[in-house]
Design goal:
The chain has 727 residues and is an alpha+beta fold. It contains 28 helices and 21 strands.
Length: 727
């Protein structure tokens, strides 16, 4: 994990604490094992439970999953902190999310145990946090645990002083002694004893850890370092060196898509005419879409593959992954012309429209890996099932195409009673005649209809402004490239939902989470930055001035709340938050890109559209703040590398003058977005666009201008000519 290397100076403190406690290093969540499996379907009515705790008052699906634990849980907030201070008790903080498999396991094994509940109530103040609602809280304590143990994951379990400083933590704690680690109950007892007998030592350790976190959370700006094309070239070489030539992807098992990395590589490869790198990305896209990580019947990607072949997924589906993958597959389609990449885009977006969209347009957060207590049960098939369901001809084609065998290709080794003979669908033999393709289509229809009657995995139905911003941008750009009006409708309905449910127009404030009719009060950089990026995509796809006006309103508040004018960059949280022991500046583009990276690129685009030099200066200073990171560990910040690349040259501006709703404008917009050229912006000639664009006429209908500075190529009203100009 990236943070363990950065926080190496903390390792000594952590080692000292291990000597104090007698505890071993925490087991990474991804490799822990369990003898039991959770049921991740909705909980029965409260009358069926012996316990109901105060989490029943919350809106988070994750916290509500724990409302009937015999644990005296508190939500993150002053009520819990006040109790810890008043009673001089350490805090036990447990962080996870509703579709987290190992969170379910630890709940089943420990948090549903009344003896554990009694131990926690006697000696600790216990707090549950949904990491998806509060990534700012999670970031602080995940960083600390990664430093202490060398790894991290969820569930994240950590002990804090009453003033919220970290003492000791880990990920999954087993119910009995195993993996060379003490049981969870022994850990609780030991911590309680140390708090009574050696509290000063624990407080001293926590103070030192906190001081190290503060000092190590100060990025070093580039100074005189040259952040130019050589940095981009070095990053390309490092990413290419990690390429898996057999299976596609970058790195070894487990395989995460991490779309910002291949997206950066593809942009640079096309620009530098590096055909080898282009093939790496296209091959990766082909193999991911052919694997079991992709839902071959319903569309959408799972979070990651546990193997190198993209075959066996961790079956949970996350909104943020699918949004970024839509953008990557649009890039792949534009570069290659391969209709299969466009088909993946359409399937993913149809999945989101069908299964992940609120009636009013908001996008839900995630679907679980488990159903009926078994991981992957919703998605897998036995050979016998398919023989009974399909005609002989259909089965013959489907079995060959998907590689269906009697033995199956998936066994859940963490389950003592795994389902037998399970087949994850992946494309094993794609070569079909026209007649076979028709048989396969019929088979897939039958399979999808039967699967739809199964018990679905748990749906996390909260709506997050941050992740919705990513998916809003995906729908908008898919409309721009593919011309499907349903995608435009989905994007505009989503923005209307966010503006109605999470945006306060009077104060220009964006809140983070909406669920069940209520929004939270949380302010996060990611919410503003991700939504800003999505709204810019929607503006470029439609040229509707109100979208550009909203983008500028978002920027005004984002800068006021999160920007650091002295050192540059953006803090994750606003100043003065009483529940945070430090303000962080995220600098890692992992499964989700860092807010700083997204903000920098969005500001650069917005500056080019509006000719706002102040926005460009803020973006460039943000990039330079992380200059050392870009130089020494470019693989960690591929999205920020895209921002760096955008900052090095003046982008081309495609100005489409005239009524953007006219048929001619739509054709010109399709042409503008139909050429892969990341270093460009698309704008109209009305609204708060740059002054030069407003002078460009449209005498006989919509007219396109390709401009750099105040120089433009000859205007055209012909979409094919516009494509030729862009090439």
């Amino acid at each position: 994990m990236i943070f363990s290397a950065r926080l190496h100076p903390l390792a000594g403190l952590a080692a000292g604490f291990f000597l104090l406690t007698g505890a071993g290093a925490a087991e990474p969540a991804a490799t822990a094992a369990s003898k039991t499996k959770p049921v991740s379907t909705p909980v029965p009515p409260a009358s069926a439970h012996a316990h109901t705790n105060r989490l029943a008052r919350e809106k988070s699906p994750y916290l509500l999953q724990h409302q009937h634990n015999p644990v005296d849980w508190y939500a993150w907030g002053e009520e819990a902190f006040k109790k810890a201070r008043a009673e001089d008790k350490p805090i036990f903080l447990s962080i996870g999310y509703s579709t987290c498999h190992w969170c379910h396991v630890m709940e089943r094994e420990s948090f549903e145990d009344p003896k554990i509940g009694a131990l926690l109530k006697e000696h600790f103040v216990s707090i549950k946090v949904d990491r998806e609602e509060r990534p700012d809280v999670d970031k602080i304590y995940m960083t600390a645990v990664q430093a202490m143990t060398g790894s991290g994951g969820w569930p994240l379990n950590i002990f804090l002083t009453p003033d919220l400083k970290p003492i000791y933590g880990g990920t999954y704690f087993p119910p009995e002694n195993r993996y060379g680690r003490p049981s969870f109950s022994e850990t609780l007892k030991r911590m309680a004893e140390l708090w009574k007998t050696r509290k000063a030592d624990l407080v001293g350790t926590a103070t030192q850890i906190h001081q190290q976190l503060v000092s190590l959370n100060e990025p070093s700006a580039a100074g005189e370092l040259a952040l130019g094309a050589p940095v981009l070239a070095k990053a390309v070489d490092k990413i290419k060196a990690e390429y898996d030539s057999r299976n596609g992807g970058f790195g070894k098992r487990p395989k995460f898509p991490r779309p910002s990395q291949p997206a950066f590589l593809l942009a640079q490869a096309v620009r530098q005419k590096d055909q080898a790198a282009v093939r790496m990305v296209l091959h990766t896209c082909e193999r991911m879409a052919a694997g079991g990580m992709y839902d071959q019947l319903g569309g959408g990607f799972a979070r990651y593959s546990v193997d190198a072949e993209w075959l066996v997924p961790h079956f949970e589906k996350m909104l943020y992954d699918n949004a970024q993958l839509v953008q990557l597959y649009l890039d792949a389609y534009l570069v290659s012309g391969d209709a299969q990449h466009a088909a993946v885009v359409r399937d993913v977006l149809r999945y989101v429209q069908r299964d992940m969209t609120h009636a009013r347009g908001g996008f839900y957060s995630a679907e679980d890996a488990d159903s009926e207590g078994k991981e992957g049960k919703f998605y897998c098939w036995t050979r016998t099932e398919l023989e009974k369901l399909l005609s002989a001809a259909e089965f013959k084609v489907a079995a060959r195409y998907f590689g269906i065998t009697e033995k199956g290709n998936f066994v859940d080794h963490s389950d003592p009673n795994p389902l037998p003979e399970q087949n994850i669908l992946s494309i094993v033999d794609p070569k079909l005649t026209a007649a076979e393709a028709a048989l396969l289509a019929a088979a897939k229809q039958k399979m999808f209809a039967v699967r739809a009657k199964r018990v679905r995995p748990h749906l996390d139905d909260k709506v997050l402004a941050s992740w919705n911003g990513l998916m809003l941008g995906a729908f908008a750009r898919a409309y721009a490239v593919l011309g499907d009006e349903t995608f435009r409708t989905a994007a505009e309905q989503n923005l209307a939902f966010i503006q109605g449910a999470l945006w306060d127009a009077g104060t220009k404030t964006l809140y983070h989470r909406w669920r069940d009719g209520e929004r939270d009060t949380v302010q996060l950089l990611d919410a503003y930055a991700y939504l800003l990026a999505g709204v810019i995509d929607l503006y470029e796809a439609t040229l509707a001035p109100q979208h550009l006006e909203f983008a500028l309103a978002l920027v005004t508040t984002m800068i006021a709340k999160f920007h650091d004018p002295a050192e540059g960059g953006f803090f994750t949280s606003p100043p003065g938050a009483p529940d945070l022991i430090l303000r962080t500046k995220e600098d890692y583009d992992g499964a989700e890109p860092a807010g700083n990276s997204v903000a920098a690129l969005a500001l650069l685009k917005l500056a080019a559209i509006t000719d706002r030099a102040d926005l460009r200066q803020i973006a460039v200073k943000t990039v330079r703040l992380f200059g050392s990171r870009l130089q020494t560990a470019p693989q960690a910040v591929p999205y920020l590398l895209q921002a760096l690349g955008f900052s090095l040259e003046e982008p081309r501006r495609i100005v489409i003058a005239g009524d953007p709703k006219a048929a001619g404008a739509r054709k010109l917009l399709g042409a503008a977005h139909g050429i892969f050229q990341p270093l460009k912006v698309v704008l109209g000639n009305t609204g708060p666009v740059e002054a030069f664009a407003r002078t460009l006429p449209a005498p006989n209908g919509p007219t396109a201008y390709v401009c750099t500075g105040t120089a433009c190529q000859a205007p055209t009203q012909d979409a094919d000519k516009l494509k030729a100009l862009l090439r």
